[in-house]
Design goal:
Blueprint (H helix, E strand, L loop, with lengths): L12 E3 L12 E2 L17 E2 L2 H7 L3 H15 L13 H5 L25 H31 L6 H26 L12 E2 L12 E2 L1 H22 L19 H14 L3 H14 L6 H4 L11 E6 L3 H9 L17 H8 L9 H6 E2 L12 E2 L15 H8 L1 E6 H11 L3 H13 L12 H15 L6 H8 L13 H4 L10 E3 L3
Helix pairs in contact: 2-4, 2-5, 4-5, 5-6, 5-7, 6-7, 7-8, 7-14, 8-14, 14-15, 14-16
Length: 508
Amino acid sequence: MTNNIFNKSNKAAVWKNKARSYTFMAVTLLAGSMFTLSSCSDWLDVKPLTEEREKDLFTSYQGFKDALSGCYSTLSGANLYGQRLTMSNIENLACLWAEPNQTGLPAEYYLWHHQYDNTYSESALKSIYGGLFNVVAQANKIIEHMPTDGSVIKSSDARNVIEGEAYALRAFCQMDVLRLFGQMPQGAVKQVSLPYALKAGINDIAAYYSYEDYVKLLEQDLNHAEQLLSKSDNESLEEDEYFLYRQFRLNYQAVRALKARFYLYTGQTAKAYSLAKDIIENSGKSLSGLIDIPNGYYTLPGETLFGLSNRNLADYAHSLLGGDNSVQVDRNSMLYVEEMSLDWMLYWGVNTASDNRYLYTWNRNTVDAMGNRYPTLRKYYYDTNAYSSSSDLSTLLTKVQVMPIIRLSEIYLIAIETTTDLNEANQLWKSYMASHNVNVTDDFSSLGDVKTNVIDEYRREFFGEGVMFYVYKRLGTTDVLFSPTAMTENEYLLPIPTTEYEVENNNP
């Protein structure tokens, strides 16, 4: 499959016009604390961060908090983890949804099976790439102002946590730039260099790094974030309402989970295992499927190590994914799966009589205008009428309007995949499956069997959460479920978007 003019041999773009760099020109900040219930709706409009406004912003503790809140607000938007990098574009890259009708499908749903050669795909990739670097630029502003202005934050713990989260955000976004636009992490034939942004000034262009050097910078940022948070992400913050609901921030355990994800993706399996095992034993979180799913909390907020609260979720998720019998399946505008795909492929060999994901998170009775049945995902669906009073606000924000980014289930699967002890793999697997109301009686006979089942489980567990494409890419999978053709290296390398500015090719 060709990528046409939008790929151009996967050559990266380098901007000559420094003053108007695409990656950093859109630096914006939102004011107001994201998770303080008393002000959860007090959002200000996005405004450009002028030099004068930047100077004023970091003269107070409140300014630093506003800057950090702006990062998370941008992440939760539909162009990033509110939709494109969880439920729509990223899942289409993994061929999870039924093939879209390209004559009428809106731009948000494209990128299916790497069809880059159209304006819809180009728009989607620009939104994702630019959005990620927007957050990086915001985080870099916080990092840059900390040495000179951080003293306005009187609490050393608060100062460490804000700086630690900024480093974590910078790493989190640039890790996904690597996973989306970078080369194959194992056995790469094509080498791809990428920009790693360490500064946010309008005249600062990020240098391009090889895969190996990029990975080193990522690990440095993750280590620095972990070090800062390990000292101060503790009970002393509880008196400051800004630090409530730590699961919606890149907290200490979330950063360690992100490191485990990073080590797994880059093939450092021993490090991934060590971190995953420690998080399972010491994070204070437990698998929550038995409690959350029957109560209608399908994103499993109880086990979420890092998630985003998305107050706009119902504005588009219900019409995009359906999930309720009242929503008629429109094959021209919705994301759905074929009934045979769900039963005979996704859940083949699974105890569907008890598995709470099959029973609850999929609505298997939704139909199109002709009465044909097409299962739809209920993961992000909720009855908006049930949360209309102020007394329901906490549940709405923390259990229903949740975009899970890193869950304990992923950490279990990392540990199961990377352990070298077959007995341990079987015990972890049984605990994991018990959270989905499945009683496992037969042990795996080999670590090879373990890995095969783990990959299948990633699809079932994280459908609609934007995980599977990265699993396929790190493994170099050619035989992708639901894909009509074999995947090649070319199809795993997303083309870096061009801009309206003059560009030159950077990669051979």
